[in-house]
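Field notebook, page 316. I keep forgetting to write these up properly, so this time I am using the form the group agreed on. The chain and the ligand, phosphoric acid mono(formamide)ester, are recorded exactly as supplied. Prediction of the bound pose follows.
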Amino acid sequence: MSNHTATKSEPVTHFLTIKDCSRDQLDRIFDFAYKLRGQREQGVINDPILKGKTLGMFFEKPSLRTRVSFEQGMYELGGHAIVLGQNEVGLGKRESVADFTRVLNGMVHGIAARVYNHEHLREMAEHATVPVINMLSDISHPAQALADAMTIMDAFGRGLNGKHVVFVGDGNNVARSLAMICGKLGAAFTLASPPDYALEQAFADRVMAACPGMDFTMCHDPFQAVRYADAVYADTFVSMGQEEEKSKRLKTFKDFQVNEKLMAEAPDHAIVLHCLPAYRGVEITDAVMDGPQSRVFQQAHNRLHAQKGMLAVVMG
Ligand code: CP
């Protein structure tokens, strides 16, 4: 999380990337997440720690999990959410990013945004005196990474030291945030991608600077990569905004499907993750997604719990 002094008042804590979160902040998020989930599972209503607070949520792209988990999370913490789409806001067209932020800043207690361009989130953070929360950008998906880490902890315990997460597919925004949270929590991370779809060297350098000593690897052979995996992660080969590259990407990624043959190379205890939505039969098969190693729906549900933990820390 980054602390910016947007005005002369108190510094504000934003949630833009996992890189900006300290280990202590991540631990506090997960402490809250587990406590709040535990209460919910016992039928206990969470304390209304965000009572009287409103989160303004802006979506430039479609969403199911992110929208529902944030809106429901605010409700369960006693707060409120307002959802805005690009058709009504016209970010960068009808109104500048700065003016959008200045207006919301005086009316709500937090601004959450899903944008194509990560720079727009940075610009919001510059102009906001309330927290700005990243709900996915072209660069990163830190809210997803919280749920991913929580699901791995559910399987192996809170200490992820020495655990090995293998992401099979495109070095995309989800992979970046996952790699960074693995490093922060002491887990090893491998990306198995086609040669032209690895994570950029500048990002690898940032990970290693933020997480010195991390076991961070990139390779092009998924079968070798999963051999010592504790978690195997699949994601779409064609992200939102890449539709024009679809046929090329489907050809390039054909050997990177998470299927029964690949999982036969992984240890029996390895779990399977996917951030969803999944294109069944493309990046993951039905047999794996619905099989005994899959945790994908638990992972989707953890979006709610992990983000409530984050909202409690950032807005509470
Ligand atoms: N994983 C994820 O962010 O899902 P949505 O795009 O449905 O929000």
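OBSERVATIONS:
- The CA atoms of residues 271 and 292 lie 8 Å apart.
- Residues 5-9 have pLDDT under 50 and may be disordered.
FOLLOW-UP: compare against the apo run.
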